[in-house]
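User: Please predict the structure of the protein below. I'd like the answer in structure-token form so I can feed it into my own downstream comparison script.

Assistant: Understood. Taking the following sequence of 584 residues as input:
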Amino acid sequence: MASMLGEEVGQTVGYRMRLDQKTSAKTRILVVTEGVFARMALDDPELKGVACVLFDEFHERSLDADLGLALALDIRDGLRPDLALMVMSATLDGARVGQILGDAPVIEAKGRAFPVEIRHTDRKPDERLDESMARAVMGALAAEAGSILAFLPGTGEINGTARRLEGCLPPHVRLYLLHGMMDSAAQDEAIRPAPAGIRKVVLATSIAETSITIDGVRVVIDSGYQRLPVFEPATGLTRLETVRASRASVDQRAGRAGRTAPGIALRLWHAAQTASLPAFTPPEILAADLTGLLLDLAAFGVADPAQMRFLDPPPDPALNEARELLKRLGALDDGGRLTDAGMQMRRLALPARLAHMLIEAAKAGSARHAAELSVLMTERGLGGNDADLDVRLANFRRDRFDRTQAAKGLAHRLATEAGQKGADTQSMSSGALLIHAYPDRIAKSRGRDGRFVLANGRGAEVDVSHGLAGQDWLVIADMQGAAQKARILSAATVSLADIEAARPQEFSLDDEVSFDPARKSLKRRRKRQFGAIIIDDQPMPSPTGDDANLALINAVRTHGLGVMDWPNGALTMRKRLGWLRKGL
């Protein structure tokens, strides 16, 4: 937009995002991320100086976009009837959106697009996705002209396809990757027009579906898959799930081939399968962690999300889980209202768990360390992707890339906002800090083979060759997979002493009395636990008194009267009483 006006960015057209901004007193059009807009609305419920809010690419239905629209509607209805709202998308259920905007008119603009020929090819049943994609890319390079944009669900499939193409591409073809974990310079290089005489092959996630035009792309190859986050309220974890892309998404992807000239879209599935694809990508609000949403609404003065106009209401199980977590962290009172601690957490612009960690760290003089950890876990790709957060933290501190420098600046600001000025005055381990964010994910080793049990009862593991595998205790920040065999994605070591110091109230010491049917005797064991983790389990002297009587009663209820040693006279009496009972 700035270049079309013949200006530098930051004059008439500026931007603002979490790690960077360019604006000036001349700025009239401000381009912001959806998360930044939501914070603008929360911090200034009148949106002073804003005449119009335009939500672009709304069909992506991110949680921040849905929250931003709900906030904008509330502001318009209550304080700013002059505020203009527009929602734009190439693939959108316009009638629903128009209705929630107050029966707003739906304007359809065909625009200009070059024709795109849709082709289909079946994948082999036993062929890996990256193998199918590499084969399709090589075929398109041989049969078609122009550069190629290939859509894959995630970085794993992108890297796998890239490995298969290495050494096979002609000299005039250059390979690029495009996904959210790359820094902006690498993304810009993937998008930039190819030099004369050079063809590009760009392997991308859904990040390239909208807004991005790669000059010279004449062929789009679509795997038909995308990766979506799914929140599990029972565990408090978000897992990534590979699912079929929606019809709206595959249409958007195909359109990338016709942006600057006629093109071809090659789909790696049978044509008849397109009809069975979901119409739209599910809104994130239906499958996301709603802790941040609930905290933001409480800051807006809304205790019940049902009071807000969401295109799709947030589900109750996730709301209940979020509400309980925020109460546990001291951010909400029993009425769902924001506490002073909750207000401080919201100001930090971090997920609630990490905000709580940073506040607690500031009290101990370790806010800089905690802020760096928070940035590592919220800005993907910083410091690499090692499962050991201390390794990533060391890499982050050494890196001198522009994005890393911006992230370090953000960490400094977060530490200051948490109430700490200057450097840390106390050295705390990463694990000791993370206890304040993830007490339910404290984990104890089950041996030396990389398997751990978490305080919430789940199981997790890391490769036996990894340095974390030999540790006794971890705090797990992120993991992926099945409930009892999840893969640890990020964690830090911690000591039992640190856990005892931070969460003494969550340790329990119980005597367990049971009956041994084989020996027909009572036994007692003393267990010390942290959540589902058994720390000590020691035999104790046999119980006496009421404990013994209660255990015997329970044993008879479970195993029957036969578990007791009966003298012959007592057995005879039991038989006579049984005969009498039958006779009656």
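That's the full token string. The CA atoms of residues 135 and 165 lie 9 Å apart.
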